[in-house]
Specification:
The chain is 65% helix and 12% strand. It is an alpha+beta fold. Helix 2 packs across helix 4, helix 3 packs antiparallel against helix 4 and helix 6 packs antiparallel against helix 7. The chain is rod-shaped. It is found in: Cell outer membrane. This is Transporter. InterPro entries: TolC-like.
Length: 416
C-alpha cells in the first residue's frame, strides 16, 4: 500500500513538472506595473517630497550664524579736545558675534509651500500612473496575438491529424483501385503545407512572447500558454487615471494661488546678537568687552506694482487650460468607447454567422468524404471543401479572440 502511494505521488509530480506554464492578462498588467522602470519613480518622488518638505519646515527653526572679523581703518572717530579718561580709538578693531533669528510670523508661507510641494508630488505620481495605464493597450496587442496563435495552432494540429487519417483511407482506396494514386500525393502536399504553417506560427509566437517579456520585464517561457480572459459585465465603475491627473493639476494650481497670496503678507522675526569685541557697543570704551542686542523686526511689502495679481491671473488661465484638456480627453474617450462598443456588437454578429457557416461546411465535408470514397469527386475537390471548413473554423477562432480583445480594450478605455 505504501509503495502504491509513493508511485502515485511520483506520477502526480511528473505531471506537474511537465505541465506548460500559464499566464493571464491580469498577471501581465501587474508585472508591467511592478517592473516597468518608471514605476520605481513613485516611491522616489515620495522620498524626494519628504526631504523637500522637511527642508521647508526647517525655516521655522532658529537661524544661527557665527561671524568674526578683524579690520584696520585709516581714520577713526576723534575728539577736537582732549577729554579726561577717554583714550583715542584704535585703528585696528576686532569683533566676534553669534546671531540668532527666529521666525515669528510669515503669513503661513512655509505651510503653503509644503502643501504645494505635496500636491506637486501627487500630480507627478499620477502622471506615472497614466503612463503605466497606457501600457495595457500595448500588452493587449501582444497578449491577444499570442492567444490567436495558440488557437490557430490547435486548429492546424487538428487539421493535420484529419489529413493523416485521410491518407490512410486513400491508401486503402488506391490499393483496391477505387482511388487514383495521385490522390495520396495531393493529401501529403497539404500535410506539408500545414507543417509550414505550424512552423510560421511557432516563430511568430516566439516573437510575440519576447515582445511581451520586454514589456513586462519578465522572462516568459516560449511554451507559456496564455489564458482566455474573463470579463465582468456587471462592473460599471469607471476611473481613468487621466481624470484624476487633471483634478490633481487643478488642486496644485489652487495651492499655488494660496502660496502667492501669502508671499505679500507681513513677516515678523525676533533676533538676537551676542558678541565680544574691541570696541563693543560703547565706542568710547577702547577695550575688549562683551555685548548683546535683542529685538523684533517686521517686513511688509505693501506695494508690489500688481505683480501678485498678475501671477494669480496667470494661474487662473492655467486652470482654464487644464479644464479644456480634461474636456477634450473626455470627448475623445467617449468617441473611442462608442467605436469599441460598435466593434464588439459587430464581432458578436460575425460569430453567430461563423457558427452557422461551420455547421453547413461540416455537412458539405461529410458528403464530400463519401463522394471521394466512391470516386464521384477527386481528392482535390474534396480538399477544397475540407479547406473551406478549416477556414470557417479559423474565422470563428479569430473572431472570438477579436471579441475578447475588443472587450478588453473597452474596459481599458472606460477605466474599469
Amino acid at each position: 500500500m505504501k509503495n502504491k502511494v509513493i508511485l502515485l505521488l511520483l506520477f502526480l509530480l511528473s505531471i506537474s513538472s511537465n505541465a506548460q506554464p500559464t499566464l493571464t492578462l491580469v498577471e501581465c498588467y501587474a508585472l508591467a506595473t511592478k517592473n516597468y522602470p518608471m514605476a520605481k519613480q513613485t516611491v522616489l518622488l515620495q522620498q524626494k517630497s519628504a526631504y523637500e518638505v522637511a527642508a521647508l519646515n526647517k525655516g521655522k527653526l532658529p537661524k544661527i550664524d557665527m561671524n568674526a572679523q578683524a579690520t584696520y581703518q585709516s581714520e577713526v572717530i576723534g575728539f577736537p579736545i582732549a577729554m579726561s579718561g577717554v583714550t583715542p580709538l584704535n585703528k585696528d578693531q576686532y569683533r566676534a558675534t553669534l546671531d540668532i533669528n527666529q521666525l515669528i510670523y510669515n503669513g503661513g508661507t512655509i505651510d503653503a509651500n509644503a502643501k504645494l510641494k505635496a500636491a506637486q508630488t501627487k500630480t507627478q505620481q499620477q502622471q506615472i500612473q497614466v503612463t503605466l495605464y497606457q501600457l495595457k493597450s500595448r500588452i493587449n496587442q501582444y497578449y491577444f496575438s499570442i492567444l490567436l496563435i495558440q488557437e490557430k495552432k490547435a486548429l492546424l494540429l487538428s487539421k493535420n491529424e484529419l489529413l493523416l487519417s485521410k491518407v490512410k483511407e486513400v491508401k486503402s482506396g488506391v490499393k483496391f483501385g477505387a482511388i487514383l494514386p495521385a490522390s495520396e500525393l495531393i493529401l501529403e502536399a497539404e500535410i506539408l503545407k500545414t507543417k509550414q504553417q505550424l512552423t510560421a506560427l511557432k516563430f511568430e509566437n516566439i516573437k510575440m512572447i519576447k515582445n511581451l517579456s520586454e514589456l513586462t520585464f519578465t522572462e516568459i517561457n516560449s511554451e507559456t500558454i496564455v489564458t482566455q480572459p474573463q470579463f465582468n459585465p456587471n462592473n460599471t465603475s469607471s476611473s481613468r487615471p487621466e481624470i484624476a491627473f487633471y483634478d490633481l493639476q487643478n488642486q496644485q494650481l489652487e495651492l499655488s494661488k494660496i502660496t502667492i497670496a501669502t508671499s505679500i503678507l507681513p513677516k515678523i522675526n525676533a533676533f538676537g546678537q551676542a558678541g565680544y569685541g574691541n570696541p563693543g557697543l560703547n565706542m568710547l570704551d577702547n577695550s575688549f568687552q562683551p555685548f548683546y542686542v535683542v529685538g523684533v523686526k517686521a517686513n511688509w511689502n505693501v506695494f508690489d506694482w500688481g505683480k501678485n495679481k498678475s501671477d494669480q491671473k496667470a494661474l487662473d488661465v492655467a486652470k482654464e487650460i487644464v479644464l479644456s484638456e480634461k474636456e477634450t480627453f473626455e470627448i475623445n474617450n467617449k468617441i473611442e468607447l462608442q467605436e469599441m462598443d460598435s466593434e464588439i456588437k459587430k464581432t458578436e454578429q460575425l460569430l453567430q454567422t461563423d457558427s452557422e457557416l461551420i455547421q453547413v461546411r461540416e455537412k458539405i465535408v461529410i458528403s464530400s468524404t463519401a463522394q471521394m470514397k466512391n470516386g464521384v469527386i477527386t481528392t482535390s475537390e474534396y480538399l477544397v471543401e475540407f479547406t473551406n471548413l478549416f477556414e470557417a473554423r479559423n474565422s470563428l477562432k479569430t473572431h472570438e479572440v477579436q471579441l475578447s480583445l475588443a472587450k478588453s480594450n473597452f474596459e481599458i478605455i472606460s477605466g474599469k
